[in-house]
Fold this protein.
Amino acid sequence: MGMSVTISAADADDAEQIFRLQYLCFQSEAELYGNYRIQPLVQSLDSVRAELAADCVLVARLGDEVVGMVRGAAAEEGTGRIGKLCVHPRLRGHGLGARLLSAVEDALAGRSGTVKYQLFTGHRSEGNLRLYRRAGYVPVGDRTGEDGVRLIVLEKEAVKEPGSYAVSA
């Protein structure tokens, strides 16, 4: 009998699983850029714990295993910033990334004043760029990360009604 993947808010007990999943998932990005110093690979466990306490962090679970995650935070001028979206390599290609993206948008839309979402990805990350374009994001600029990787900045207006995707707490 198969299990279904559920999406819910992360809690402090998820920190180590998130830390390990992030390290696993971002290996392919590091390989793509020939740069193993990208932020998700050098982030400390304590820093992940701090993000869990401060930000909106959602996880996808298959049973007790965290198999996907995304972070969001309300920023200045009504911008919901989204980051570190990742899905376990064995579950990629089944729409879980799109589900996580939609869920974090809904979670951020519920916070007062969110009028747009913003995220970024590496310029060579074609799979990520396809996902974001399909979800309605458009490139608005680029910048170079602290690790030297050229990043494409994408934005989308917050037009969805909050609650169109249920996230359990």
Remarks:
- The longest strand covers residues 65-74.
- The helical segments are 15-25, 27-33, 39-42, 45-54, 96-109, 126-134.
- DSSP finds six helices and seven strands in the chain.
- Residues 5-157 form a domain with the Aminopeptidase fold (CATH 3.40.630.30).
